[in-house]
Design a protein that fits this description.
homohexamer; mainly alpha
């Protein structure tokens, strides 16, 4: 008889492995995030039963997101994640990266504004251009043109930044789909993070 | 002044790095694929300017695609790529993975049938179920339900296979978007591979 | 020369009238909500320049939302608003009614879960049926069938409740479009309401 | 056992109340329309079991539709209703307001042209601009921009007219959904009204 | 310098040829329809400059539409045209074939009901099944399945009737697109045909 | 009992008639294509049971496709078929006309590039304009404007060429739907045609 899959699992529709059973490199990565956040975000737990995929996933994440440039700050990278994940109705990514965006932007409202209607969010023209092309790549990727990429450079992004916009959207296209497939819920801690004055 | 981006570049809209300048691990991986294929597929060249991302990308690729199971053969994994990449109008992935699918399935017609209209392709009910859920996850991920995953297990896929279906779709959601963003064209060699009787 | 319209106005793209200049009935209604909430929600201010429309708008709102029945609690009515307003990307309604839903449901997570992906929200089957039909009426109204209404009654809604589901969706189809047209932003107070244990 | 709902009811899927049992104000409003039209339009009958909602509904209708301005005549307001109701496949509103549009425009063809394909209807540029923005607000409300509103003012609409365009679209977004929910059919009289030379 | 194309031409955006200059066979066909209708429908005039295409077009039309069978009457064939042309927003076909449907069904309301919302039109289950599959073939043809065709036969259509459903939809997919391309307006006579008791 | 329809028939879901039983004119047409191609393309066999429709179908095909003009070569006409048939997921037309396009363009790659993502195909601006308008007419015909037709003439197409673009799209809108309805598979010969250097 076939297994059944939970509609709303605690962590994932698939088996979860104890961090103690992970390869040493991943154990270190998991321990670091748990120490920094105060809890282990569910996406780490959900990927634990596939260590090779987990290692690749977090390596690519860090290469794109732990990075600050003149044209694209860490907070702005998070807003790209929020806008495109909202276009994909991905609860995990909207809530978890919304929390990180609130903290990195020190703005308790912006992430929600971007999640629900980025078009009217109080952002500079550069970020409006970024989010417009980012959401297009997320939802109708074949319609992205060379002119779309050029428009980002006209708003001051470097060639490296332009690549990063595309790669962040692409990486969260993957991430959103894994989260939907495994029905990974956001940890409750994320909902309130960054909403209070002294967070 | 802003750089302009090519509408139809030879390899990528972004800089390409010589394999000689890659870190040793990647050099080995690149050399292996070039020896096996007789040429370096353009996606390798296009990712070369970002070695950390390239390493993660190919690690995840290999973890999901170089794998044969009772419920999901290597050829069938390629057909998932073909069907979902066609839903995203991704030339690189349809042509390159269509070629691999022809070789792995030893069928010169199936990949094109799946690319253009998987619904009428001569496949077993199991693969029709797989492709239906896979394309749903690719195009409207929020609509995937627990019942969709359970239906795959009822068709004989193991829990590992079910994860793989979702992870393959997710990985190529990323891959399709990178290929669109950088406008990576398929190498000409792919177009004819696996079409002749003794290929 | 034509007036220009603000992309992100403080209260509305159209003129705002002081509550003192409203007809007595509306003044009373406005004062009541301001006293109860501690602030005047922006939709009241935005409608003030059209007193006849404002009176009709709040009369219909109250007839549908200030109502508790066995089949549809006040909190559940708010969740219908949240789910369908999210389908319309309406920031004002998602944030303001998300806040009210948190307070009425005494649940700090549910409104966000429903806003981003109602399909996976931890709700009883009755509310899943309600939200499925409600979102259909919001987005593709011609596809609603007699069987959809009957399914709600099978989940325990009375005929009055079934009407209310449709009328709430219809009323917020109006409300979402007014909020988009006038670009009414939610008051900042709404973002944090109902998120803290003792709210 | 659950009630069943008629697929094609005579007046409504919900109970209909005799006008004699309505509150005095509504009785007067209903009698006036019946005297003017020679029959009671079904939307009046369908709303009769909810007097508070009916009163608000017709108050808002009259505030927006019984109004003539330089920038937006009564006939043109009806054409906005026809175009957006057609986009929602709402039989009641297309037929009833198509009839009123024929009478108010003294044109037996225009309403059908607008209902089926407003893009090619023989209308002045001002009305093409109005209908383009109106249909956008009806179907994809989040995509309406400040520039859309400004474009209407450039075509000669006053700020009051611009609000009216949005409010009419919003009100019929409500009306279309109520008509679909209750499956309210148009009275047969509407089909022929305004089609004959001396109507 | 390039020609310009009329947004709303009298007969067509392309040249119109006098019937006297048509090949004898077409002249006869054109004369017959003009005698029967009392006027020459604009689609005949619009196709006149391409006699070979016109001959093929009307030959295919007559083979499919001038045909009565137990499972699909002439009036019902016209309703298929109305429903699918409405899905394509084709004014010419909705108005012209709506007129013919009114005459052939001796029902002054049915064609409008089918044009605006076939789902709620008072039709037998057989015709609901026919229109559901017909509109699917018109709008999302790849989604039609063998089971859709089988369902029509279960409703009493013969294999010939089932082909006719598909061929009628296919033929008007062509016809709708020609009418949009050339912007062919319906003759004014069509608007009133079949609406009066003794037509 | 109802007949059932094959999901993946050898030639068609409907009866196939021997060429010997066709009217003499069609026999000649069928024999000519079989001699030229070396096999009878399945669409001929599938239409054989309806000789009047077959005669009209191939007459219209030849009038539009066996034609070379300065503004639109035979190969370019085939590419219009490939792009729009791909938008409709029509296997028969993509594969059969892809083969003809390869032969007529003497390019083994172009047809696949156009089928999967015409936007990035290495074509002159004229053909990009043609395919953009062609795909619009195929998918959302009501959105085609007079300006779209004028843009083609600005790219050097004559008025006759402009008509041909629309008529080719319209004809294959029909053809794609017949092929989906009857589930006509492409003959295996088409898959390899034109792919080898000396074809």
């Amino acid at each position: 008889m076939a297994d059944s899959y939970s509609a709303a699992p605690h962590v994932s529709r698939f088996p979860v492995v104890s961090p103690d059973d992970l390869p040493p490199d991943l154990q270190k990565r998991y321990a670091a995030v748990e120490e920094k956040s105060g809890f282990l975000p569910n996406v780490f737990a959900a990927l634990s039963w596939r260590p090779a995929e987990a290692a690749a996933f977090f390596a690519m994440h860090d290469a794109l997101m732990d990075k600050e440039s003149l044209g694209l700050s860490k907070a702005e990278r998070e807003l790209i994640v929020v806008a495109t994940s909202a276009a994909n109705d991905c609860l995990y990514c909207v809530i978890a990266h919304g929390a990180i965006a609130r903290i990195r932007s020190r703005d308790p409202y912006l992430a929600d504004q971007v999640a629900v209607d980025w078009r009217k969010a109080p952002l500079p023209p550069r970020m409006h251009a970024v989010l417009e092309v980012a959401v297009k790549l997320a939802v109708t990727p074949a319609e992205v043109t060379a002119a779309d990429l050029a428009s980002l450079q006209e708003h001051g992004l470097s060639k490296d930044d332009v690549w990063d916009v595309g790669a962040i959207v692409a990486f969260f296209a993957l991430s959103n789909r894994l989260a939907h497939w495994a029905a990974i819920p956001p940890n409750e801690e994320f909902f309130l993070m960054g909403r209070l004055p002294r967070d």
